[in-house]
Amino acid sequence: MLLPTQPNLRFLTRDSDITGAWWSAHSAGAETSLGLSAVRRYIEVHGGTSLRFLEPVAGIQRIHPLPLAFSLDLASAADAQELLRALREDPLVLAADVSNEFTFPTPPMAIFGLPVSPEANVARSICRFDIARFPVTCEGTRIAVIDAGEPDHELLVGVLDYYGMHSAMQKQQVHGTAVTGVLAAKLAGGAMVGCCNARVAYFNAWTDSGSSFIFERDFYVRALLSFLASDMRVLNHSLSSTKHDDVVAWLFGRAEELGKVVVCALPATRHPYPAAFDSVVRVGKFKGGRTSPTGLTASVSAPGTGLWLLDAEASYRPGSGSSFAAPAVSAALWLAAMSCPNFSPADLRDMLIRTVRGLTTTPHSNIGYGLLDAHALGELVKAHCSCR
Amino acid sequence: MSVTLRIEFAGLCLYVLDKDKDGVTQRVGVVMPNCRNNDNNVDSRHADGTIGEPHVAYMRLDAGSLGIGPVSGESGDGPRVELIHRLLGELLLPIEDATPREVIGEPLVPILNSQHGDIALKPDLFTTAHPDIVFRTVLVGGHFVAKRGGKTWRFPSSLRGTFAAQTAPFEGTVVWEREFKSLEAIKLTMTSLDGTAPMTFPDLKPLAQHGDHEGRSLVMIKLANLCAHNPIEWDELDLRVVQEDKDFKWLFRLLDDTSRIGDWATRLDDRPLPFPVLDDNSMEGDEDCTGGKFYGSF
Questions:
Q1: CA distances in angstroms from B222 to B9, B59, B83, B176, B226, listed in the order given
Q2: I want to staple A272 with a disulfide (CB 3.0 to 4.6 A). Which of A92, A113, A294, B191 is the partner?
């Protein structure tokens, strides 16, 4: 029996696959309770409750074609706390509260990092990140990022440790902001809206003169050394060079020996290094990718076209590039490495490739062996981990 | 009631920033050089003797905004049905006195002003049917939206040190936005370059799918001057990827050398016209072929 003044629990989900399935069923008149087990159990126990899709803040529907916000009628106020706790612990739920005044997080970037087009969204739903699938045991270890610019965005507050020059010009170069956002952006409350919940050690390899950017090879080498000397397992790398550098090549070799994985964006330029080094995971764009002018072949691919990216001055923009596909793979490998520290870089690369969608016997130049499937990777890690 | 016009400029455009004595940008003129094939006015041979690739200038409209096509997909996708209007004329944007005239921000593209002040805009680019241009428009108010996250380009110091060398993630597309508080739709008028034969397009209305995360009502158009290889930039066709943006040389058609050395060819002294080159160390991105900017009144 529902109460006369019915309490109401509202929540925002982050997984478009689940909400998409709910929406399809709902549109067809079928009953469904999302893939959230706590919600399903609650509805099974309390027959009179109902789950409704909410029109959230104005922007969210415009950016994303799928509903993400839901309202669940509760049988009693006393039920709320237990359900609320369960929902808040669910990695698929961004925010939840029991109130008719519930305010959705602003900006509504639950969908941050998701492609904007329905077509690309299909790819995203395959390449989903459900960290519950990964038995992560050592979340404290960071991901290393070597990139350009000084990230400065409200969704990156508390996410990264910045090593590099501070200047107005560095803040205008938003490449690193966008890359780090795809990798690990978080809402103010801590909800994960990037691909993983890693903390990032961010190395800016560039300085500036106030009017021009300057690549600092010494900074770059020191960043690589810092990565090697740390307990970090994964480096995300979107910088490419025309010239082979013996020192850099040696450092990349050492990374492999030290159990570390380097993920590089497949070059869209004729700059082959360091993507050409052995043992590097090269990431192409799943849609709209092109053969690299370097002649290099992708190892795997991830969504990299029509993505919403973090931009300067706390804003967002649609953008494309293999630079923004690579962080999805870095995040998946970080989750795998954190879940099972015993895996070697070769193990991680092998599992990454074995679990892609559309696995082919020979890699396609643009998309490699197939599309990253973080879900399947998590399952394989769980099945083969001998740590526990 | 308000509508925001978002214009995406792509390819060969010269942005002329007209600043007052306080450094405030009062207006920005955008001109596209005439790089058309089969145009008797166009000599495809640049001042340094190299041959320029032909380009086509066009305006892309969303048929959905005109109410004659399906509404578009998401704002990052572009129109579902795109209407292409080849450009030869001047685009007049709506006028609204209530909003500030200052243009905030600047495109991040190579600066073409000389350190010595010995390069000027060709006269009459903004007032006559100048044979060296196919298109012009003037932006008042609004702001440029930074898109500075891609490849790293180096624009060399050349022409006997005329330009300061610049290394930056130059923008392949430049986005300008302005909100019109008293309008519900955007009315665009195109005239000939001599100011005659005005042609007014049907009202462009915002589409729900064009709203951004701030919930604004957006009308989006694209103004492009792109190489004939794949000017519509369809993903299904090969998009040119360049290490050297030699198309940039076309922009020098819009400038005058006032150094008394002579014409460009004399001044170059067998050196090539300068153009952006991908830096030896670059971030990855999809950007190619940039415009240029010039500080000056017009």
A1: 6, 6, 10, 10, 12
A2: A294
